[in-house]
Amino acid sequence: MAITDIAAYAHLSKTDIEALGDELDAIRADIEASLGVRDAHYIRRTILFQRTLEVLARLIIATSRSRTGWLLGTAALAFAKSVENMEIGHNVTHGQWDWMNDPEIHSNTWEWDMVALSAQWRYSHNYRHHVFSNVVGVDDDLGFGVIRITRDQPWQPQHLMQPLRNLLLAVIFEWGIALHGVHSERDRLAPDGEKVWEARMALVGKIARQAAKDYVVTPALSRSRWRRALAANVSANLLRNLWAYLVIFCGHFPDGAEKFTPDALKDETPAHWYLRQMLGAANFKAGPLLAFSSGNLCYQIEHHLFPDLPSNRLAEIAVRVKALCAKYDLPYTSGSLARQYFLTLRTIHKLALPDRFLRATHHDAPETASEHKFSRATGVRTGGLKSALQSRARR
Fold first, then answer.
1. 349-364 pLDDT, tens per residue?
2. CA nearest 90: which of 59, 64, 113, 57?
3. Helix (H, G, I), strand (E, B), or coil: what is residue 195?
4. 286 falls within a domain
5. Does the structure show a pLDDT above 80 at 375?
6. N or C: which end of the chain has fewer CB within 10 A?
7. Can you quote a single GO CC term (predicted)?
8. Is the dihedral of CA 126, 350, 9, 391 positive or negative?
9. 74 lies in some domain
10. With contact defined as beta carbons under 8 Å apart, do 28 and 316 qualify?
11. Per-residue pLDDT tens for 329-342?
């Protein structure tokens, strides 16, 4: 089963958890106090770079007559769309740049270049996901409603298809996010049928505008070469979807990204919330280019701790968070991008099967663990969580 008693699982006392919370509060305060011109220049340069790259990519696609030129232009367009989606759209909509008071670069005004509506995504993601991260039955992002990602989700025959569902979701990821957002709006607005209808129509309008832009207007600007431009747009959107899917799944579903029962929310303090974020997310190792390309979501742990702090500061925050993990003997879940995706795929394929075909227990599986993992029947609770996990691994 998922974790119910976070303190017991983490091997921390109430005093330890509150002290950890104080140290994380201090990190937030330090970063907020240091925000300034350098950070504002960063996001404005990023937006200028992305828009310039997109224009150049479209010019190459429209004017080049060679296959190499088309491939180069399409790759550049896909990269521009990925930067807009993750380093700009995702992070601006999180409110990371609201402190600038720039009416354009603000969470309430930014509309990203994909079929999902920013306003609907803000509720489903910023609230439902980030506030209740990895709480089974509460966090809608836990498998996105189509993939069984923990044994706490009862197996159904339809889960046999989830390896194929996973591939389909990767290909149409922006559409999955759009539907995910409007479904969360439906749950929030029900039983007001009129407002639910308005939310659906708002999404239909955004889809129509986005489809017209990508598949009608921009190809038409290439006149007689519209087929070439249309193929480039379709390909760039596909590549952007695959990349966004990969980054998101590797930050949420590999081994070590723990899940929690709704009981874990009872009497949850801000410090306990911090601890749940640390235990429920996973990083992947990245250099500056890979970090930028992923919207700095290679630092998923830090992003979940401080979702509204600017993404360009997550690398320096990560150094301090990793030190805190060492101090409190907590695991800092990280690995290469390839390893994290392998672990995610293993979970997706394994949990497609009924539980009777699985070997590990409900409390001690790589993808689903609970505080009972360290009961007297299964092991000895000594030291902190990291030491306890290492001790069990050696058995």
1. 999 999 999 888 878 8
2. 113
3. helix
4. yes
5. no
6. C
7. membrane
8. negative
9. yes
10. no
11. 999 999 999 999 99
Determine what percent of the chain is predicted with pLDDT higher than 90: 83
Q: Is 155 left (phi over 0), alpha (psi -120 to 50) or beta?
A: beta
Per-residue burial over 50-77, b = 16 or more CB atoms within 10 Å of its CB, e = otherwise: beebbeebbebbbebeeeeebeebbbbb
Token reading at 119: 């306003």
d(CA 164, CA 387): 38
| No. of helices (H) and no. of strands (E), the chain | 17, 0
Relative orientation angle of helices 226-252 and 37-63, to the nearest 10 degrees: 140
Total residues belonging to the chain: 395
In a domain, 39, yes or no: yes
* 3-state DSSP assignment of residue 364: strand
Which structural domain range is residue 18 located in? Answer: 6-335
CA 235, chain centre distance (Å): 23
Domain membership of residue 31 (yes or no) is yes
Rounded Cα distance, 4 and 335, in Å: 26
Instruction: State the Cα–Cα distance between residues 112 and 128, nearest whole angstrom.
Output: 20
Tokens of 92: 């601006």
* Cβ–Cβ < 8 Å for 391, 382: yes
* Sign of the dihedral through C-alpha 183, 187, 193, 195: negative
Kindly indicate the confidence band of residue 394, based on its pLDDT and cuts at 50, 70 and 90: low
CA dihedral 193, 195, 198, 204 (to 10 degrees): -80
Helix, strand and coil percent figures for the chain, each rounded to 5: 65, 0, 30
Query: How many independent structural domains does the chain possess?
Result: 1
DSSP 158: G
CB 42 within 8 A of CB 62: no
H helix or E strand, kind and range, residue 280: helix 270-280
